[in-house]
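Record type: ASSEMBLY
Status: queued
Input:
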Amino acid sequence: MSKSSKTQEYVRLWTTYGQRVYAYILSLVANRADADEVFQEVSMTVWMKFDQFELGSNFRAWAYRIALNKVREFQRARRYLPVFLDSDLLEIVDRLTTERSEALDNQYRALADCLGKLHPRDRDLIERRYRVGATPKSVSQQVGRSVAAVYKALSRIHDALFDCMRRATVMEEYA
Amino acid sequence: MSNRLSSEEMAELRRLIQGLYDGRITSDERARLKQWMRQSEEASWIYVQYMNLYAGLHWDTAQESELEQAVPKGAAGASRSAILGFLGDVFQQGTNFLSRSLVLSLLLAVGLPFMLFLILILHVARQPAPVARAMPVAKITQMHECVWGEGSAPLPVGADLFPGQRIRLSGGLVEIVFADGTNVIVQGPSTFETNTRGEGFLHIGSLVANVPKGAEGFTIRTPTATVVDLGTEFGVAVEDEKDTLEVQVFQGKVALKTGVEDADRKPSHHHLVAGRAVRVESADRQGKMVVREVAFSADRFVRRLPAPTKPVKAAIIADFSGGEGNAQVDQFPGTAGSGWATGWNVEKAKELKCITSIEQANPLLGGGKYLRVLLQRESGVARARKAITVERRLALTDRVDLTKPYVVSSNLRIDVLNRFTESRDRLGICSRNIPQSEAGREGQLSTGWYICVVGKGNKFGKSGSWIFFARNRKGQAIGVDSRIPAREGNTYSFRILVDPSARQWTPSIAVNGGKWTKFKPMGMRTRGTAKENGYWPFLRLHCWAGGGNKGEDVGEVGFSVDSGLPRGKRLRLVRYWGGEAYRGNNG
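Status: finished
Output:
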């Protein structure tokens, strides 16, 4: 396979699985800033090591393995800071994410629908919250509610989205 | 699934997970959540699903700096809404299709109801994307001597490019591969924007697109024209604000459409085949475009990137013996160059006598010339109000890229420690910087990393041993006792691994060329991001000999320094996107 078509294959795979890798990393670090940082590292590494990837084999599994290693590296480098997922929890989360990737994919796909089902006011709040640079405080100022009220409302909306996404996959889970 | 949770348990679990993510739970609650997840697979699964939800919601805002510039251009697809999610993809393709100049003819051809339906779809898909996550549409795959333009965050090879993301190049070449497989080489100076998986917008500058089989239809837009590929390799150059543009076809053929649909002028269509080149210019004030044939020039565009060179480790050396073969830079005080931003600077305190000299006899570990510093406080002189420093600033990105992890090492021999008995008596090696936010508090806070010996025992450690001054994970100032005593006549080798983005440093010490003792990483003393701290660019020897009050005995400190060797990655022309990815952990 020529270099350029390999590159094209890479771009295709990464645009397909990039988001899933991001979600996987986020579940391993439980923090957005860290997830962004690790994701960049992983994105680079996947790209640089893509020559070693055997086309036709499981790209997701391969990328997840790189991500898991990067998360471990990241934790080692920051051992000086508290880590939520210790190595045993990392393993649990990794196993669940891998084993049930299909359910998680379906949930992610359902997110758009679930957002659509929210009350417009709630959707507005979520949009404000996830806008670039937004904080609960800035959101609270925009909507004229207290920070605590915003947190409370966001928790409720997240729970609603969570339930909605889960319903989309309940069949797989309890089949 | 076993051990199903009760609704109370579920409510509690949700609260803990959400609190964890928002950083709003106590350490006890964290511990409880951990324990719960260890014991119950169901709890772990709920956690994973919540993270999946957050990741879905966040997926758009990760590339903050780039997305801020992401203003959707003419292409409707540039504003894919994450709220539409996967559906958005479908809509996006639909609108792309429509936006390719077919809108008018289609609308004329079909009836009004269908037209309304189309408008509705367009309207939905064109909604601004408040949770604007889009999948990357292209990727940077190679670069050559890239110089990033103002307002453009430097991107590394491998960086994803998103819809509406703009790249400003002042010079050099960037190779971008679009998701449809098209390979584009953008040549600086240029401003280029990735719109969709099969479309880019060239604001100014030039590029060559190489479109593989199957990606036909790849489109380059410019302010005044659209070039649609029909299976080919072609170059486009937008020359100036007057929107003059040149298109040249190397292989295959392209369709060129000039003019703007919504204006009063009619677009004109042309087909160009390999070996042809045209120039498009506005002919009058009304913006009428004229297309005329020009000579084909094989050298007009850069079609291939030169082979990449591998990064090499680099070092900046100060051994006062000509270092890297540049005697002028390496003398004392020396000059800027070879990775140094300045020569050595000696800052004296008026109460202290400071004698510096380059010596050759009795060399330190490595042999050769070295710098000797002797400080004296004479009897009857008031206590020194400031330290004496001998320091030199490192260039931020010359040879060694200080924004990446790098190592500073230095040999330091203690020649004299006479009357070194007060807590004000200090001898150390440190970085320095004075962040704007800390101006005026230099004495306390100007060092990022700091290793010193203190004349008198203090709360941080045993008197007479090397102490690391740092911050702990909570951001509190701490001192860590190395338990390595500082003695006259010994030569201490210091090796400090500085990780700017993590705001961490990891020291190692060896005595008289013996085995290294490595210590744990610790936080930088100064606050603020690495960038605000200028990446701690100084190598500084820091000495107080100010103990005691007026009228007391003479104090004297002498030390010798050799081979300060900041080592690190060779300067790379790229940095991680987003610049300072670090989000303060140490306060």
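Annotation: Residues 171-175 of chain A have pLDDT under 50 and may be disordered.
Annotation: The CA atoms of residues 13 and 59 of chain A lie 7 Å apart.
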